Amino acid sequence: MFRWLRAKKMSAPQEKMIQNVENFVNPKAVLTKFTNVTGIHFNHKESITTSKLIHFCRNHHITSFDELYSCLESDPDILEALINLLTVNETYFFRESRQIYFLIEKVVLNNDKVRILCAPGSTGEEPYSIAMALVDAGVQANRIEIVSLDINSDVTVLAKEGLYNARSLHKTPLSLQEKYFTKAQSSFKISDEIKQLVSFRTLNLFDDRLFELGVFDTIFSRNMLIYFDESTVIRAIERLGRLARDKESLLFFGHADFIKTPPSLIEHYKEGIKFYTVA
């Protein structure tokens, strides 16, 4: 009788333990779902990505990849959190600066307003670099509008704050550091003069709300396409091309974003700079 009572008392906790047993066997469905939403694939990186997924699940009290998949289907907050985890990229001010200064020369030659898109804009270093270079070249603020978008909501928040460490500024000319940053303990805060020229949006490139942004004279999309497979690269470039104002709009990509020029673009090479226009 006592043995029966002891067994009955243990049955509920045992059942709860069984329910909480982790079962992280195959993340394929989760990774496919993530790729379908973002375009980003994890070919040759599945091992480290799986480790990140397991850590993510444990932090959110999720015990299996099947449960995670269900959460991604039903809970937009979980999907956003996972996107934020898996899309953090290193960047810094004046990365590939020759493209920026090539653009500056074109803008200074005319008196028109210029509308520039950075996709992705990450934590803001690229769009702020462009804004600083334009202002420093004498372009009036009322001629400049820069839109920065990124799929990661966390980096968008950081970009709006405009607070950076010394590492982010290691390629920034000292004259620009002194002119457009204020030292705050171990950090550097970008000036309001530059901040007001850039608007930041959290937006997926494959979300059709993209086209509500309007059209642009120049589009920077650097070091994003390397995370896409070939068909997704073509699709992404076609969508970016639809944001070009006209056939004269300039598009800049990272050196490793694609090898063969997609059919929707025309490649140009001038003054040592490679850029593209819409075909």
Sequence-ordered SSE layout with sheet pairings:
Blueprint: H1 2-19, H2 28-38, H3 46-59, H4 65-74, H5 76-86, H6 97-108, E1 114-118, H7 125-136, E2 144-150, H8 153-161, E3 163-164, H9 174-180, E4 181-184, E5 187-190, H10 192-195, E6 198-202, E7 218-221, H11 230-241, E8 250-253, E9 265-270, E10 273-278
Parallel strand pairs: 1-2, 1-7, 2-6, 7-8
Antiparallel strand pairs: 3-5, 4-5, 9-10
Helix pairs in contact: 4-5, 6-7
Q: How would you sum up this structure, described in words?
A:
By secondary structure, this protein is α/β, with parallel strands linked by helices. It folds into two domains: 2-86, no CATH class; 97-278, Rossmann fold (3-Layer(aba) Sandwich). It contains eleven helices and ten strands. The chain has helices spanning 2-19, 28-38, 46-59, 65-74, 76-86, 97-108, 125-136, 153-161, 174-180, 192-195, 230-241; strands at 114-118, 144-150, 163-164, 181-184, 187-190, 198-202, 218-221, 250-253, 265-270, 273-278. Strands 6-2-1-7-8 form a five-stranded parallel sheet, covered by helices on one side. The protein has a three-stranded antiparallel sheet with strand order 3-5-4. A two-stranded antiparallel sheet has the order 9-10. β4 and β5 form a beta hairpin. α4 crosses α5 (76-86) and α6 (97-108) crosses α7 (125-136). The N and C termini lie far apart (84 Å).
